[in-house]
# Entry
Amino acid sequence: MSQVSSAQTADGADFDGFYAANVGQITAQIRAYVGDLAEAEDLVAEAFCRALARWKTISAYDNPATWVRRVAWNLATSRLRRAAVVRRFLIWQRPQAAEGPQPDRLDLAQALSELNERHRKAVILRYLAGMTTAEIAEQEGVAETTVRTWLTRGKKALAERLRIDEFEEQR
# Structure
């Protein structure tokens, strides 16, 4: 049993020396390829982990560092390709720029926001939702004459805020 332990220890020490001798140089090469030190360190660590799992075979190669470098390089290439696919997908998914509201729409929105809540609601329901005064009265639980008063006052306030001389009701 001590022969197995000493063989494993020798292999482990052999790998530790190999790792220490090569990790810096391979990381620098991969960093130059991917452009990010943290990403390069992750890729090289993965390559060395794969080498450790196969160390008995890889240690017999003429230059095991070439194998680790190739694995790290392949991992980096795969990651860069995946990142490019993700970028293309995100660009494709990006909503197309819609034309913003026109100044008159912004003026109307601002003017509506300054109205009394009841007047604003009546104007919106009548002119944007197309409801009749009877429907608004029923929804709000008030008399139809109250809705007409709200509409009259709301239109007058809007006309003042929008500087409209005459506010014509459109159906």
Q: What stands out?
A: The helical segments are 2-34, 37-53, 55-58, 64-93, 103-113, 117-128, 133-140, 144-162. The chain has eight helices and no strands. The chain has a mean pLDDT of 82. Residues 34 and 40 are 7 Å apart (CA to CA).
